[in-house]
Amino acid sequence: MNPETLRYERVTLSPRQRARVVAIFSVGLIALAVLLRFGFERYYPTPRQVIYERENNNLRAEYVALNSHLQQVEAELAELRNRDDRFYRSILSLEPVPSSIREAGTGGSESNMHLRNLRKPGLVLDVSERIDKISNRMQIQSSSLENIYMEAVTNQQFLASKPSINPISSGDPIWLTSTYGYRNDPFTGKRTAHHGIDLAGPYGLAIHCTGDGVVISSETSRHGYGKEVLVDHGFGYVTRYAHLQEIKVKQGQKLQRGEVLGTLGNTGRSTGPHLHYEIRKDGSPVNPMLFFYENLTPGEYTQLASRVVPVENTYQGVAMSQK
Ligand SMILES: [Zn+2]
């Protein structure tokens, strides 16, 4: 329609105008195709999509199951940790592992960072972080148990080695004739320190080693102890058995608690048959009466301690009265 002539006229398009019309039409067509395709997919998924969807659901269910399984593992680990602190460690008087160490390195891990980029990281991230935490706690728990084991082994050796019995069997007749501490020397009458205890009894009574150890000396003393045996028990403990009648062990010999190392006698600077028994811890003498708990009941201990014969009474007198 030509507005000037008011007549219909045939429009002729230049080649360029024609090309533009074709282009616009093509773009429209493509846009329509794309729209249709996505619209179709939205309501009618392709078979492949159906498979993916199903797999996805299965995986999600797997993760949920895995998550609850991990909860169980966590609970078991917590129980182990509880037993570790309250039972195993307390038996060996070890401090509980501080929670700062137990929880160390159990925060989010760097290795999980890539998971945060997932479209829905929640479930996968949760499971992954849980596994990290459990693995860290397991390592801490494992090293704690290793410590406990070492402690128990050492403790066992210590308990076996520590002097802890009376060197004379509790059935044998003995008198405690001199206690540990200061006393008037039976020879000089001067007040001197007595570094052990004296147990008087009949000649030939078996003298027992009081803890596992190694004989470091078994000869006649140059200091008035007569025939004596010195035993090194490790852990700083050394015991001395002096004035023996007969020595039955050799230097370097390994002894177990209770083994006979000699017999009661009257050798050296002694006024009658008795055993001088001494315990040193890290070189310093300690009271042997405090180390008799293994083979002496509290009653027997009281009885022995109450039978202390004043040193003024001669050993000979004690030995005689024993007969
Ligand atoms: Zn003595």
- What class, by secondary structure content? alpha+beta
* CATH fold-level label of the largest domain: Glucose Permease (Domain IIA)
What's the CATH H-level superfamily name of the largest domain?
A: Glucose Permease (Domain IIA)
Counting structural domains, the number is 2
DSSP helical segment count: 6
The oligomeric state is single chain
* Major beta sheet summary: 10 strands, antiparallel
Query: What form results from the Cα inertia axes?
Result: rod-shaped
Order of secondary-structure elements? HHHHEEEEEEEEEEEEHH
Query: How many extended strands?
Result: 12
What does the model show?
It is a single chain. The chain is 42% helix and 20% strand. The protein has 323 residues and is α+β, with helices and mostly antiparallel strands. The protein has 2 domains: 47-161; 175-322, Glucose Permease (Domain IIA) (Distorted Sandwich). The strands form 2 sheets. Strands 1, 4, 5, 6, 7, 8, 9, 10, 11 and 12 form a 10-stranded antiparallel β-sheet that branches. The protein has a two-stranded antiparallel sheet with strand order 2-3. The longest helix has 45 residues, at 47-91. Zinc ion binds at residues 178, 194, 196, 198, 276. Zinc ion is lined by residues 178, 194, 196, 198, 276.
